Write a sequence for this structure.
């Protein structure tokens, strides 16, 4: 009985040995022999891109939703084409397409006007590309949120003679916020995870740094798990913040009814 | 996705859809496509047609297999979270949180490079019958895409299971149905019905995730396009064609799901 149990622990130890690669702590330490510093720098880059892309996406989303709801027929159709194409084509393909085409077009335009070609930084390109992708989803989220504002509030604003700009600032945006936040929160989480795709075009964000560290040291498992933990911490931390923002945005509103049951 | 062909609308609605400005826009789009066809370089296309077809086939195959397997995994995951005891609900929730909280690309590389570097260290794995399969890339691609789909869809199924009205289950119980029959006849069909609209969206998202497998050397349509770009040094044309292929597949998926939804009566209990 006991020997069988002992045998089993030995078996388990034998099984776990390759998993518990001995030098984990040294590999992940912040100072140069370890790669922890590189990973953290990659995480900082990822967060920077995610924040930039989310902000750009929000700006595109607000103007896109405004155009879809109140714009002319041509604007509406063009926005429909934009959101449909971006939501139907894989991000990876869009990133490649916009990354090459975008930098190429900007340089050609500069050349046309007699300026020297510029080297567009990976950061700016990444933010631009992911921002365009986020913008398409944000357009739909914000459009839906604006549509769920009680019509009376918009009519009241009109009746008070507010200009469209003032109405947007004072009524539409604050009133749509509680409806938009769940969708926007989801978009933020997607933005943090989509930064990983920039590894494919060679930008030094967390996944790319992890790949380099893993390929150099051959400790693939350790580094990918470490990066996964970092991403997960970012997500969980975001969830806490999102919960607070949601409570703040819903203040004064009746609590959500329990679904179904 | 409403811009995709509204084929199931009556004629009056269709003529309202085809307004004058739309005709102009369609003409401009057609002119752009024509320009692209005439002035861009497509002479490489015949040489790679066979490869591209194989790539599309592999993309579709991965999509179908991972969606089916993922959904089969999502049902117990959702059920465990909606109605399971804590020792089932908690691991299911942890699994969904971990998969949904980390990028798919990282999961894919963790499985392929991480497990791929661990497996050879166990002699019994190397000597097993499965080793020739485990040495290839596609099992890891299928596994990670399946787990990802299961986690996202599991979350949806949790809501769907929880959303089935209690009265339905109580009625089934009053009829003396066994728990298994209750699940099979009442709970699961209604939950799937509730999850169906999101199922279409999740499947499109899954299609959009498939090109990631190209990074671990599975030759799907995306990898074929990359290969063409490397071979011919042509940048835009393969990418544009690739985008078109994905657009078409997405259109077919959305259309098929719409048909499927229309077949099932829309009244919810």
């Amino acid at each position: 009985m006991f020997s069988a149990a002992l045998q089993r622990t030995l078996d388990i130890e034998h099984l776990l040995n390759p998993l518990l690669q001995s030098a984990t702590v040294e590999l992940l330490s912040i100072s140069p022999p370890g790669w922890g510093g590189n990973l953290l720098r990659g995480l900082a880059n990822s967060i920077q891109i995610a924040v930039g892309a989310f902000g750009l996406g929000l700006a595109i989303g607000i103007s896109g939703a405004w155009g879809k709801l109140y714009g002319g027929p041509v604007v509406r159709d063009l926005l429909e084409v934009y959101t449909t194409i971006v939501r139907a084509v894989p991000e990876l393909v869009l990133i490649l397409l916009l990354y090459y085409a975008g930098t190429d077009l900007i340089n050609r335009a500069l050349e046309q006007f007699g300026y020297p070609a510029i080297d567009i930084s990976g950061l700016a390109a990444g933010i631009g590309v992911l921002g365009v992708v986020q913008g398409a989803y944000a357009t739909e989220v914000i459009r839906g949120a604006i549509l769920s504002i009680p019509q009376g509030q918009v009519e009241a604003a009109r009746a008070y003679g507010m200009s469209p700009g003032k109405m947007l600032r004072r009524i539409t945006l604050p009133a749509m916020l509680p409806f938009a936040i769940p969708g926007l929160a989801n978009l933020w989480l997607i933005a943090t995870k989509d930064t990983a795709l920039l590894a494919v075009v060679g930008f030094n964000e967390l996944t790319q740094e992890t790949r380099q560290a893993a390929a150099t040291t051959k400790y693939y498992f350790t580094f990918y798990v470490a990066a996964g933990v970092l991403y997960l911490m970012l997500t969980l931390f975001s969830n806490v913040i999102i919960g607070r923002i949601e409570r703040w945005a819903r203040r004064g509103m009746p609590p959500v009814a329990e679904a179904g049951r | 996705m409403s811009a995709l062909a509204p084929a199931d609308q009556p004629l009056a609605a269709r003529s309202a859809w085809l307004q004058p400005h739309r005709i102009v826009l369609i003409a401009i789009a057609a002119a752009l496509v024509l320009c692209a066809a005439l002035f861009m370089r497509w002479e490489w296309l015949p040489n790679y047609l066979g490869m591209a077809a194989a790539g599309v086939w592999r993309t579709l195959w991965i999509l179908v297999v991972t969606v089916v397997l993922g959904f089969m995994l999502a049902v117990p995951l959702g059920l465990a979270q909606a109605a399971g005891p804590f020792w089932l609900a908690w691991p299911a929730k942890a699994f969904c949180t971990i998969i949904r909280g980390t990028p798919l690309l990282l999961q894919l590389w963790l499985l392929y490079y991480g497990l791929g570097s661990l497996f050879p260290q166990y002699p019994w794995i190397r000597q097993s019958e499965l080793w020739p399969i485990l040495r290839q890339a596609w099992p890891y691609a299928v596994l990670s895409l399946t787990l990802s789909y299961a986690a996202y869809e599991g979350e949806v199924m949790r809501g769907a299971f929880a959303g089935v009205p209690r009265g339905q289950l109580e009625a089934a119980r009053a009829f003396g149905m066994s728990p298994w029959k209750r699940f099979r006849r009442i709970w699961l069909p209604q939950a799937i019905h509730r999850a169906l609209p999101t199922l279409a969206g999740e499947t499109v998202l899954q299609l959009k995730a498939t090109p990631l497998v190209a990074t671990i050397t599975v030759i799907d349509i995306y990898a074929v396009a990359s290969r063409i770009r490397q071979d011919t040094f042509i940048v835009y044309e393969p990418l544009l064609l690739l985008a078109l292929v994905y657009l078409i597949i997405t259109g077919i998926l959305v259309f098929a799901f719409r048909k499927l939804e229309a077949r099932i009566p829309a009244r919810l209990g």
Notes: The radius of gyration of chain B is 23 Å. Residues 1-6 of chain B have pLDDT under 50 and may be disordered. Chain B is about 80% helix and 0% strand.
